[in-house]
Every structure is written in C-alpha cells, then in structure tokens.
Amino acid sequence: MKLKETQALQSIITSLIPSHTLFGFYLHDTNTKETITINEDERLPLASVSKWITSILVSRSTHSVVNEDLYLTVCEHSTGSYVNLIHELPEQYLNDSLASLDVDCKVSDQNRDTVNNIGTPKGLFQMMDLLLGKGLKPDHKEAIMKGMKHQSDPDGFCFSLPWFHMTGGLEGVCNDVGFIKTDETVVIVIGLLHCQDPLVEWNELEKLMSTIGESVERYIKKVYSIK
To answer: CATH for 3-223?
Structure first.
C-alpha cells in the first residue's frame, strides 16, 4: 500500500464521521500484512456480528454442529439456527474462549445488548484471521464462508467487488465485517459504527456506511489497479 493513499483514506473516513458518532475501522492486506486502522481498540456494540463470532467459536469446539445452522446464522441471521448453535454452549463458555484467545470481544445471546455484546475492530480482525486460517473444521469453515458470500442483508459497506461479509445493526449501530477477494490478495475490512444521538435515524447510519464503503472501494481499486 502506498503511504500517500493510506493517509488520504484515513483522512477521508475521519472527515465523514459526525461528532456524535464513533467509527472503528480495520483494513488488512493478508499478503503484504499492511494495515490501516481507526479507533481499532475502541469497544463498540456488535449487534448480529456476535452471531458470526459465535459461529467461529462453535466451529472450533468439540460441540456437534449442523452446517446448515452455521450457514443460516450468518447468511440470514437466523435466530432459530443461532439458538441451535448455542444450545449446549453458554455465554460464559464463549466468552472464556474469547479471553483464552486474547480477543477483545464479549458476546451475549441478547444481540441488542450494547453493554455485554461488544468488541473492538482489532478483536474482530483476530476472529477473521482465525476463520481464514486452519483452526476450523473444513466443512464448518466452508458453511460460514458460504453464508458470508450469500449474505442476505444488503446493509453495510455495499462493495461491488467480491465481498464475503456479516452485518449487524440496531438503533444507533451499523456494522459490517468481511473480506474482499482480489486477483492478488484477500483484504479484510471491518467497520463498526455507533451513534449515541437518539435523533439520528438508522437509515442515516446506513447511508454513512455506504459512503465510507465507496471511499474504501476506490482506494482498493486504485492500490490494486482494479478497473
């Protein structure tokens, strides 16, 4: 990545964020290992992104998992499939697992909880690194990846490039976590947006995330010479 373009992207994103809103960002090139971050250590509400985290943790455990439940939990944010995943794995087990991995995230089966269902962009990057690595059973990994590829929620960055992702949203929260595949590399992109102004409508956050996504995509296309 070129320093000039990197600094320009950080400046553009920072200029887009209103004073009443906090945005956490993590972009990582898995080939060059170069990284761009903004508020990467800030703990922000996860919303449904915790379902994605849980899918990865469950897939690393000895717990019996149905691949369709992994797929539907990620792709459709299915509550029924999510309940199946955590049926024998209480919150404490999941959070102990995160602590043992030194991942700064905390999950709750109450996805709308903004106190106990939180995480940092850096922590989510660590979870993505686990997913892209070799620690998961191949069929479980494939089910999660397929769910990300066919993500049914259109919100978030709205990239036109090949985008495997998981979204999460509720009042004041709009998140998108995933990776872009290019011919050269895989680029992990994580965005957590939290607005504490109750007068701001959720669709305004949706538009803001999309606008940030446009800037990120222009940057990626320029750096990797993608037309």
So the answer is: 3.40.710.10
